[in-house]
Amino acid sequence: MPIFEISQNKLIPVEQKNFSLEKELQSLIENNLEEVFNCRFVATEFSTGAQHAGRIDTLALSEDDNPVIIEYKKMESSELINQSLFYLHWIQDHKGDFEIAVQKKLGNGVKVDWTDVRVICIAPNYKKYDLHAVQVMGANIKLWKYRLFTNNSLVS
Q1: Which of 7, 62, 84, 147 has most Cβ atoms within 10 angstroms of its Cβ?
Q2: Over the stretch 94-122, which tens digit does the pLDDT of each residue have?
Q3: How far apart are the C-alpha atoms of 81 and 21, rounded to whole Å?
Q4: Whole-prediction pTM value?
Protein backbone atom coordinates (compact mmCIF):
# COMPACT_ATOMS: atom_id res chain seq x y z
CA MET A 1 0.00 0.00 0.00
CA PRO A 2 1.53 3.34 -1.02
CA ILE A 3 2.00 6.17 1.48
CA PHE A 4 1.10 9.72 0.50
CA GLU A 5 1.90 13.07 2.06
CA ILE A 6 -0.87 15.66 1.88
CA SER A 7 0.32 19.08 0.76
CA GLN A 8 -2.07 21.87 -0.29
CA ASN A 9 -4.84 19.37 -1.08
CA LYS A 10 -2.49 17.26 -3.24
CA LEU A 11 -1.28 13.72 -2.60
CA ILE A 12 2.45 13.34 -2.99
CA PRO A 13 3.83 9.78 -2.97
CA VAL A 14 6.38 9.14 -0.25
CA GLU A 15 9.15 6.81 -1.36
CA GLN A 16 10.40 3.97 0.75
CA LYS A 17 14.06 3.96 1.79
CA ASN A 18 16.32 1.94 4.04
CA PHE A 19 18.60 2.78 6.92
CA SER A 20 22.16 3.44 5.78
CA LEU A 21 23.48 1.38 8.67
CA GLU A 22 21.89 -1.25 10.88
CA LYS A 23 23.16 0.77 13.87
CA GLU A 24 20.81 3.64 12.90
CA LEU A 25 17.80 1.35 13.27
CA GLN A 26 19.20 -0.06 16.51
CA SER A 27 19.80 3.39 18.03
CA LEU A 28 16.33 4.58 17.06
CA ILE A 29 14.67 1.60 18.75
CA GLU A 30 16.95 1.70 21.80
CA ASN A 31 16.14 5.38 22.32
CA ASN A 32 12.42 4.60 22.14
CA LEU A 33 12.14 1.19 23.84
CA GLU A 34 9.45 2.33 26.27
CA GLU A 35 7.26 3.78 23.51
CA VAL A 36 7.69 0.92 21.05
CA PHE A 37 7.90 -2.21 23.24
CA ASN A 38 7.15 -1.02 26.79
CA CYS A 39 10.65 -2.14 27.82
CA ARG A 40 13.52 -0.64 29.79
CA PHE A 41 16.93 -0.47 28.17
CA VAL A 42 19.64 -2.64 29.75
CA ALA A 43 22.57 -2.87 27.30
CA THR A 44 23.68 -2.49 23.72
CA GLU A 45 26.10 -4.80 21.86
CA PHE A 46 26.22 -7.11 24.89
CA SER A 47 29.12 -9.55 24.58
CA THR A 48 28.41 -13.25 25.00
CA GLY A 49 32.07 -13.84 25.85
CA ALA A 50 35.06 -15.31 24.06
CA GLN A 51 33.69 -18.86 23.88
CA HIS A 52 30.35 -17.93 22.27
CA ALA A 53 31.86 -14.97 20.39
CA GLY A 54 28.68 -13.01 19.78
CA ARG A 55 27.12 -9.65 20.55
CA ILE A 56 23.45 -9.31 21.40
CA ASP A 57 22.25 -6.12 19.71
CA THR A 58 19.96 -4.94 22.54
CA LEU A 59 19.11 -6.30 25.96
CA ALA A 60 16.03 -4.96 27.71
CA LEU A 61 13.66 -5.73 30.55
CA SER A 62 9.93 -6.01 29.85
CA GLU A 63 7.20 -4.30 31.84
CA ASP A 64 6.91 -7.58 33.79
CA ASP A 65 10.68 -7.73 34.47
CA ASN A 66 11.27 -10.49 31.90
CA PRO A 67 14.47 -10.50 29.78
CA VAL A 68 14.07 -9.22 26.23
CA ILE A 69 16.59 -9.79 23.44
CA ILE A 70 16.28 -7.58 20.36
CA GLU A 71 18.10 -8.31 17.11
CA TYR A 72 18.05 -6.07 14.03
CA LYS A 73 18.64 -6.44 10.31
CA LYS A 74 18.35 -3.63 7.82
CA MET A 75 17.65 -6.19 5.07
CA GLU A 76 15.72 -9.47 4.92
CA SER A 77 17.82 -12.30 6.35
CA SER A 78 17.07 -15.87 7.39
CA GLU A 79 20.17 -15.69 9.56
CA LEU A 80 18.25 -13.49 12.00
CA ILE A 81 16.07 -16.33 13.34
CA ASN A 82 19.04 -18.67 13.91
CA GLN A 83 21.07 -15.89 15.50
CA SER A 84 18.16 -15.08 17.83
CA LEU A 85 17.80 -18.72 18.88
CA PHE A 86 21.52 -18.82 19.64
CA TYR A 87 21.19 -15.77 21.91
CA LEU A 88 18.02 -17.11 23.53
CA HIS A 89 19.84 -20.29 24.49
CA TRP A 90 22.86 -18.30 25.66
CA ILE A 91 20.85 -16.02 27.98
CA GLN A 92 18.99 -18.96 29.53
CA ASP A 93 22.39 -20.50 30.30
CA HIS A 94 23.94 -17.22 31.54
CA LYS A 95 21.24 -15.74 33.76
CA GLY A 96 23.78 -14.26 36.16
CA ASP A 97 25.41 -12.17 33.41
CA PHE A 98 22.04 -10.68 32.48
CA GLU A 99 21.08 -10.02 36.10
CA ILE A 100 24.37 -8.19 36.73
CA ALA A 101 23.75 -6.03 33.63
CA VAL A 102 20.23 -5.24 34.89
CA GLN A 103 21.52 -4.28 38.34
CA LYS A 104 24.23 -2.04 36.85
CA LYS A 105 21.75 -0.23 34.60
CA LEU A 106 18.48 -0.27 36.57
CA GLY A 107 19.57 -0.73 40.19
CA ASN A 108 19.88 -3.53 42.72
CA GLY A 109 16.18 -3.51 43.59
CA VAL A 110 15.11 -4.91 40.22
CA LYS A 111 14.44 -8.66 40.27
CA VAL A 112 14.44 -10.48 36.93
CA ASP A 113 11.50 -12.81 36.23
CA TRP A 114 12.72 -15.69 34.04
CA THR A 115 9.27 -17.18 33.28
CA ASP A 116 8.88 -15.49 29.88
CA VAL A 117 12.11 -14.62 28.06
CA ARG A 118 11.18 -12.82 24.84
CA VAL A 119 13.07 -12.30 21.58
CA ILE A 120 12.13 -9.55 19.15
CA CYS A 121 13.52 -9.65 15.62
CA ILE A 122 13.28 -6.42 13.65
CA ALA A 123 13.70 -6.49 9.86
CA PRO A 124 11.98 -5.04 6.79
CA ASN A 125 10.72 -8.48 5.76
CA TYR A 126 10.89 -12.22 6.45
CA LYS A 127 10.86 -15.26 4.21
CA LYS A 128 7.79 -17.50 4.45
CA TYR A 129 9.91 -20.31 5.89
CA ASP A 130 11.05 -18.07 8.75
CA LEU A 131 7.46 -17.04 9.51
CA HIS A 132 6.45 -20.70 9.66
CA ALA A 133 9.48 -21.77 11.72
CA VAL A 134 8.73 -19.19 14.41
CA GLN A 135 5.12 -20.41 14.62
CA VAL A 136 6.07 -24.06 15.21
CA MET A 137 9.23 -23.82 17.33
CA GLY A 138 7.53 -22.84 20.57
CA ALA A 139 9.99 -20.10 21.62
CA ASN A 140 8.67 -16.63 22.42
CA ILE A 141 10.00 -14.97 19.26
CA LYS A 142 8.19 -11.99 17.75
CA LEU A 143 8.94 -10.89 14.19
CA TRP A 144 8.51 -7.15 13.79
CA LYS A 145 8.48 -5.73 10.27
CA TYR A 146 9.15 -2.10 9.49
CA ARG A 147 9.14 0.25 6.52
CA LEU A 148 11.08 3.51 6.49
CA PHE A 149 10.12 6.38 4.20
CA THR A 150 11.89 9.43 2.81
CA ASN A 151 9.77 11.76 5.00
CA ASN A 152 11.27 9.95 8.04
CA SER A 153 8.09 8.03 8.86
CA LEU A 154 8.49 4.55 10.25
CA VAL A 155 5.63 2.08 9.86
CA SER A 156 5.46 -1.27 11.61
Answers
A1: 84
A2: 999 999 999 999 999 999 999 999 999 99
A3: 20
A4: 0.91
